[in-house]
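Task 17 of the worksheet. Students: predict the tertiary structure of the chain below and write it out as structure tokens. Keep your answer in the requested format; marks are given for formatting as well as content.
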Amino acid sequence: RVRKVDSTFIYKPATPLELYNPDAKFMNNSLCLDIIFSNSGFGGGLLYTHTLDKDNILFANFYISGARNTDELEYWDYNTGTWRVPNKVNRLFMIPLTFGYTRLMFQDAIAGSFKPFITGGVGPALILSTPYEKEWFSAWNYTQAYIRLDTYIGIGAYFSLIDNSIASANIRYYYIPFGGEGLESIRNLPIKDFGGLVLSLSVGYSF
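Model answer:
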């Protein structure tokens, strides 16, 4: 007669198990690359954030992009043998530097790494103008620079990734009045407000 004996096996992990905690991914600071989409095309910049607590964040960011207020389509100019934009006067570029505040929303109602927020900021915007009739590189010798005030408000959401990686997406509305008669990119179509809607995708790491 064979007697059966129950056996118990205990497995011990090689490394201690860590409980998932989405809040642990949001450290005191983060540094992200900003990819910008606007009516003026694409741009790029940097975003730095400092977390005050689980709901409140301070930030500084900037981006660089071209500026225009209408479609600027290039046509082949048989006289010069080059591609030209009709009636274009200046190449315009802008670099808004913004300092602001972000408030994370619905922290007690939404679990996981999805964290919606509202945000707003203010700072100086550097606007650069180079003459279009000059060759692209030599035109920088004739650069004119202007400093204007920029402000924006926006909404978006953070997404935590693996390890200390972090990502966010947001929609911002910038207000950057130029003042006076504005600044021309296309002749007789001066830009008086360099702001507008901007879509931003930020990817970086927290520390």
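Marker's comment: Residues 1 and 58 are 76 Å apart (CA to CA). The longest strand covers residues 114-131.
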